[in-house]
Amino acid sequence: MDQKRASGTDQTERYQLIVESLKEYAVFTIDKDSLVTTWNSGAEGIFLYKSDEIVGRNGDILYTPEDIAAMVPSREMKDSLADGKAINERFHVKKDRSRFWGSGIVFPLYDKQGQHIGFTKIMRNTSDAEQAETNLREEKALAELLISTYSEPIVILNSKLTVMNATPSFAQLFSLNKQTFIGKNFYQITNGSINMPQLRTRLEPVLKTNNYYTSFEVDYEHPQRGTRSVLVKPRRIYQPPNLLFSLEFEDLTDNKAVMEEKDIFISIASHEIRTPLSVIKAYGQILERELNNAKPIVKRAVLKINEQINFMSSLITALLDTSKITTGKLILEPEVFNLCSLIAEQVESFNLTQTSHQVHLPKEADLMVYADKVRTGSVITNLLSNAVKYSPNSHDVNINIEATADHRAKVSVQDFGIGIPVHEQAKLFQRFGRTDLVKQKRIPGTGLGLHLAAEIVKLQGGEIGFTSAESEGSTFYFSLPLYERPDE
Ligand code: ADP
């Protein structure tokens, strides 16, 4: 007990030491009534109030009268409680009533029992008056540098949405004449083409929250070219008050049409290949049955041919399914069934195809789901065959099935194999996403199985994911909503 108390005190002391060492940052706390409760020396330096001059006073005096009238302090507290933090980037007022641009974050503060007791504010002075001139110069230089280095359609705007600069391809994309729009308001350079109500609606929260890192797609009417879709990528270049940000545009219209054509092509080609392939497959099987008296070289050749035909036919099936998914033509046929029994059946038939691994199944239970049984079965087989394929030096695969608190049946398949390097994990559910590791090791595969599995699971209201450590193994899991019997 004493030990615990001692270490608690150490922690508080350490926290205070850190807070005190932050000379560039004002760190202070306020209680729920906005009264300042602690004040570090960084805050003394920035706001010019000594700790004993401000502790106990209302923290609103640090805001401008305009912000107080607009209820900014209470809005910040509300946002911070709702989201765990709020961005606090605005003008603040020092003891001598001069203003500076403070940039920081507000966190809610809880006591040991988890009761909300106030807020912590961390803030830096990002604009001393003498800095403003330099900032402005840097800002202009940066804008020019960007425009001269990029060829993509980019426009650079300031906080008033005045166009500071733009690349020639931006002018081209929107059929504008560059001379006519520099220095004008972004929304007023329409010429009919940048009249994008959707862009306006999407841009407003970006400006309000200072979050310049999420791209979004908008459709608009180009006067000559009809309906176009563009991906808009905002980036902040310079922080407020000399805010400068860029919008990069990527025209997706032609790409989308090409993608659609490609999907139609894949789907037709796969269909056409499937028919002759099934004939070859049937003859291959006949040949395999007649191999008893054949020379070893003939035997080997026929087995190799059949192995490759099987690979090709599963590739074609997967390609057909993926193109059905992207064109929205995959039709699921849901029914109510026991997921545990389906898994037991899948494992039984899977074991007929392999002897290298032992698949450990939990005791069978009743977990009823309403889903497409055949497609769900293919998800299970895919996870199982990956677990075996990617763990050549181990012999065990564990399956776990459980009902979760949010009314889902969750299935996990664990292996002790090669694992997936962290930097490659993001591409696994993408089409043809295979890790370099399996390509180096020449483990065969199409890179389509997990993509399909993910789409099938998501279409059925489920979730899919994995955890993995390189050289230790992976656990892939998916969940489906449990079937709830309608009340009689
Ligand atoms: P395939 O196995 O045909 O390549 P999948 O879509 O099923 O295609 O899997 C995509 C990729 O994910 C694999 O190529 C492999 O790199 C990785 N992967 C999948 N399952 C595992 C696993 N259990 N262990 C390690 N890597 C895996």
From TrEMBL:
<dbReference type="InterPro" id="IPR035965">
    <property type="entry name" value="PAS-like_dom_sf"/>
</dbReference>
<dbReference type="InterPro" id="IPR004358">
    <property type="entry name" value="Sig_transdc_His_kin-like_C"/>
</dbReference>
<feature type="domain" description="Histidine kinase">
    <location>
        <begin position="268"/>
        <end position="484"/>
    </location>
</feature>
<keyword id="KW-0418">Kinase</keyword>
<dbReference type="InterPro" id="IPR050736">
    <property type="entry name" value="Sensor_HK_Regulatory"/>
</dbReference>
<protein>
    <recommendedName>
        <fullName>histidine kinase</fullName>
        <ecNumber>2.7.13.3</ecNumber>
    </recommendedName>
</protein>
<dbReference type="InterPro" id="IPR000700">
    <property type="entry name" value="PAS-assoc_C"/>
</dbReference>
<feature type="domain" description="PAC">
    <location>
        <begin position="85"/>
        <end position="138"/>
    </location>
</feature>
<dbReference type="InterPro" id="IPR005467">
    <property type="entry name" value="His_kinase_dom"/>
</dbReference>
<dbReference type="InterPro" id="IPR000014">
    <property type="entry name" value="PAS"/>
</dbReference>
<dbReference type="InterPro" id="IPR036890">
    <property type="entry name" value="HATPase_C_sf"/>
</dbReference>
<feature type="domain" description="PAS">
    <location>
        <begin position="11"/>
        <end position="84"/>
    </location>
</feature>
<dbReference type="InterPro" id="IPR003594">
    <property type="entry name" value="HATPase_dom"/>
</dbReference>
<keyword id="KW-0902">Two-component regulatory system</keyword>
<dbReference type="InterPro" id="IPR036097">
    <property type="entry name" value="HisK_dim/P_sf"/>
</dbReference>
<dbReference type="Pfam" id="PF13426">
    <property type="entry name" value="PAS_9"/>
</dbReference>
<keyword id="KW-0808">Transferase</keyword>
<dbReference type="Pfam" id="PF00512">
    <property type="entry name" value="HisKA"/>
</dbReference>
<keyword id="KW-0597">Phosphoprotein</keyword>
<dbReference type="InterPro" id="IPR003661">
    <property type="entry name" value="HisK_dim/P_dom"/>
</dbReference>
<dbReference type="Pfam" id="PF02518">
    <property type="entry name" value="HATPase_c"/>
</dbReference>
